[in-house]
Design brief:
GrpII_Intron_Splice-Mob/Def; nucleotidyltransferase; flat; Alpha-Beta Plaits; alpha+beta; 15 helices; DNA/RNA_pol_sf; four-stranded antiparallel β-sheet; transferase
């Protein structure tokens, strides 16, 4: 059930938000510092929220390089607590009500592998309907999506959702703290999805594209008619321009039988209607580079066993969603040889 602003500004709600914010992060210095005086900190935060004195603090800036280079603006721990209080109790449900099924990112019950399964289902359905792997794909990517989101347009979309004035003001304060959307905020993920929600409905309901899926700034359209996809591309360019976005140079139309590179895998539709999902070459290359590093570093004590296992298990769990049994067995064997133990 959605909570009101007054209900959010209570000790039980904010304490639950604190517990959510610290989950999986208790080893971090900022979390430990807050946790040392948790009851006092939560009580103070309740007062600051209730009196509407809360303002987001400065970010800690750092760069990540996977899956691509991005600047992350990490909020202070207190801001993470407030984000959970807002998102978990009112913002998430209100923002996601209108989202289409094939908007895959940052939602409960969805995600990377849900998107991959939907793509496989689309390919199978396409073959059942057309009895061929001949067709066309329009693959698009929005240029500098998070950094380019227009605050005025987004604020108008948020206003239409009829938040209480106090909550709407807090959401706008997050927006006004930086240009575009900061990658570190929980709200930013949902704001990004909301920003193109009308676009999702436009593709499905106006352009009538049955086989469409989007993960943040990355989306695909499948159709048997290349000329129609060329028309769709012109319409999409116009739509993006209307919200001050543009597609990047990776956007192109290509034959369906070439396969679709989406969410870390290359998915192919065969002439017999089978869908084959191959792990992206770059992922395999990086894993092999890690193995070479571990083989040298582990005997010297420069990397520990748990770090190797955690990294390998994360990669293996992701790779398991493709046709990768032999590759995974090969990588597993190499990890066993490095650790000199059965795993």
């Amino acid at each position: 059930m959605l909570k009101t602003f007054d209900e959010i500004c209570t000790f039980p709600v904010v304490y639950d938000a604190y517990l959510a914010a610290r989950r999986g992060k208790r080893s971090k210095a900022a979390t430990a510092k807050y946790e040392a005086h948790a009851l006092e900190n939560v009580s103070n935060l309740v007062y600051i929220l209730r009196t509407q004195l809360y303002r987001p603090g400065p970010f800690h800036l750092f760069t990540v390089y996977e899956p691509k280079e991005r600047l992350v603006q990490a909020p202070a721990f207190t801001d993470k607590v407030v984000q959970h209080a807002l998102v978990d109790n009112v913002v998430y449900e209100r923002l996601t009500r209108s989202f289409i099924l094939d908007n895959y990112a940052s939602q409960i019950g969805k995600g990377l592998h849900f998107g991959l399964d939907r793509l496989s289902g689309f390919m199978t359905d396409y073959w059942n309907k057309h009895h061929t792997a001949e067709g066309w794909v329009l693959k698009c990517d929005v240029r500098k999506f998070f950094a380019s989101i227009d605050h005025d347009i987004l604020k108008t979309k948020l206003l239409a959702l009829d938040f209480e004035p106090e909550i709407y003001t807090m959401l706008c304060n997050y927006l006004d703290s930086t240009d575009g959307l900061p990658l570190g905020y929980q709200t930013s993920q949902l704001f990004a999805l909301l920003f193109l929600d009308r676009f999702d409905h436009y593709v499905k309901e106006v352009l009538r594209i049955r086989y469409y899926g989007r993960y943040m700034d990355d989306f695909f359209l499948i159709h048997p008619d290349k000329e129609y996809l060329q028309f769709c591309l012109r319409e999409i360019h116009a739509f993006m321009a209307s919200v001050n976005l543009e597609l990047n140079e990776k956007t192109h139309i290509f034959p369906l039988r070439n396969g679709i590179d989406f969410l870390g895998f290359h998915s192919y539709l065969t002439d017999s209607g089978k869908v084959i999902r191959k792990l992206r070459h770059n992922s395999v290359k990086k894993m092999r580079a890690k193995l070479r590093y571990w083989a040298k570093a582990y005997p010297k004590g420069k990397v520990d066993r748990d770090a190797i296992l955690a990294s390998w298990q994360a990669w293996d769990a992701h790779a398991a969603h493709g046709n990768t049994w032999r590759l995974r067995q090969e990588i597993r064997q190499q990890v066993k040889e490095i650790l000199k133990e059965d795993i």
